[in-house]
UniProtKB/TrEMBL annotation:
Subcellular location: Cell membrane
Entry GO CC: plasma membrane
InterPro entries: MFS, MFS_dom, MFS_Efflux_Transporters, MFS_trans_sf
Keyword Transmembrane applies: yes
Name under which the protein is recorded: Nitrate/nitrite transporter
Broad class of the protein's primary localization: membrane
UniProt xrefs under SUPFAM superfamilies: MFS general substrate transporter
UniProt keywords, alphabetically: Cell membrane, Membrane, Transmembrane, Transmembrane helix
Parts of the chain that traverse the membrane: 12-33, 53-72, 93-119, 166-193, 224-246, 258-279, 291-309, 315-336, 348-367, 379-397
Pfam families, per database record: MFS_1
Membrane topology: Multi-pass membrane protein
Occurrences of domain Major facilitator superfamily (MFS) profile (ranges): 22-400
Length: 400
């Protein structure tokens, strides 16, 4: 009864004052964008066949998404601070929609790669604006609110990739990717109509100055923020690398069918639906040093076991173990939101996330080159070591 009453209080707090409706719309946009991004790994075998891609070039295709996602987060954060979250998030979804249409119509590998990079840029505008909007709506519940939107992202990543794989199997990869375009258009309209115009802020000074940039960089040179940038870089690199090649790995190395591999891939994100809100609550209650190592422990075990398991049931168990690391996003980004000074929150978050994402984006292409040389299994052991390094680094972070 106490737990049920506690859940009701939390739900009431998140819904109070009309903020719940805004949370739902923001979460829907994040879920759809994340789910669309993770369609790429499921369709990678078909894309490789149609455009004659090797494992290395296929990895580079995924890297382009993450590079675009990294590059745009600094301007996305600056625009969120100066122009407001509604305009930035709507522009993000519109740009992603246009670029997906170009991907579906791509006549050559060069056009495919260019449109994919543009898709990454479209994605990059959304995340920082989402975080700053939530920090304004829920100053005392940022971990919980961020956990819910991240769970929505994992819902999209759970449902859309298997659905895209099934559509591609009976039609073509273009249909497996193109079916999300109407939904993206609907979300863009919903964001513009639902988020209040008051969140669209006109900058008082208007221009970006060198002195202002130096001031921001000076505040971001705090040792805690630099330390968090390294942790975030390692985490993002691991997640991007794993998600880029897991369906391909299951098909080529474990002998699973395309349907089974896409289902396991969806299961990986399904666990995040529960893990991220739980991790957000844990962060709000006990802080980063006691919550993050617990969340990462399962991934260390899972990555270590992945090369030695073969049948479906053990692979399901390993997938669930690895997926617990998805909860770390709610913890690390809530910690960053709490740590960066409020007056540069959007710009600061964009800068830290952009640096971490840009460095981490190298993971898929490097992993693809390693896998192409016959070291697929060894690559996953290396990921286990990197997760262990993140866990040790976490213990050096201050709670406040």
């Amino acid at each position: 009864m106490d737990r049920l009453a506690s859940l009701r209080r939390e739900a009431s707090g998140l819904w109070a004052g009309g903020t719940g409706k805004l949370l739902i719309v923001i979460a829907l946009g994040w879920g759809l964008l994340n789910g669309t991004r993770m369609i790429y790994p499921v369709l990678l075998p078909q894309l490789s066949a149609d455009f004659d891609l090797t494992l290395t070039t296929a990895g580079f295709l995924v890297t382009l998404i993450w590079l675009g996602y990294a590059i745009g987060q600094v301007p996305g954060g600056v625009l969120a601070d100066r122009r407001g979250e509604r305009a930035v998030m709507t522009a993000s979804v519109v740009l992603a929609t246009i670029s997906l249409l170009l991907v579906v119509l791509a006549p050559s590998a060069l056009a495919l790669f260019a449109a994919t990079a543009l898709f990454g840029l479209g994605l990059s505008l959304y995340p920082v604006a989402r975080i700053t909007a939530l920090s304004e709506l829920y100053p005392d519940r940022i971990g919980r609110a961020l956990g819910i939107t991240m769970a929505a992202g994992d819902t999209g990543q759970t449902l859309l990739p298997p659905l895209a794989g099934a559509i591609a199997a009976v039609a073509a990869w273009q249909a497996g990717l193109g079916f999300v375009i109407p939904a993206l258009v609907a979300v863009a309209v919903a964001l513009w109509l639902t988020l209040p115009p008051s969140t669209d802020r006109e900058s008082g000074d208007g221009d970006f100055s060198l002195a202002g940039a130096r001031s921001v960089l000076g505040q971001l040179r705090h040792p805690t923020l630099l330390f968090m940038a390294v942790i975030l870089f390692l985490y993002i690199g691991i997640l991007q690398t794993f998600s880029a090649f897991y369906p391909t790995y299951l098909i080529q190395e474990k002998g699973l069918s395309s349907a089974a591999s896409s289902t396991l891939f969806g299961l990986f994100f399904a666990v995040g639906i529960v893990a991220k809100p739980a991790a957000g609550v844990a962060y709000d209650r006990v802080g980063i040093r006691r919550s993050l190592p617990i969340v990462l422990a399962g991934a260390i075990v899972g990555f270590s076991l992945l090369p030695v398991v073969e049948s479906l049931v053990p692979l399901v168990v390993v997938t669930v173990l690895v997926s617990t690391m998805l909860g770390s996003g709610a913890i690390t980004q809530s910690y960053l939101s709490d740590t960066i000074p409020e007056e540069i929150q959007g710009t600061g978050l964009g800068a830290v996330r952009s640096f971490a994402s840009m460095m981490g984006a190298m993971g898929p292409v490097l992993f693809g080159a390693v896998a192409e040389r016959g070291f697929f299994d060894e690559g996953y052991v290396l990921l286990a070591v990197l997760v262990a390094v993140i866990t040790l680094l976490t213990l050096r972070l201050p709670e406040d």
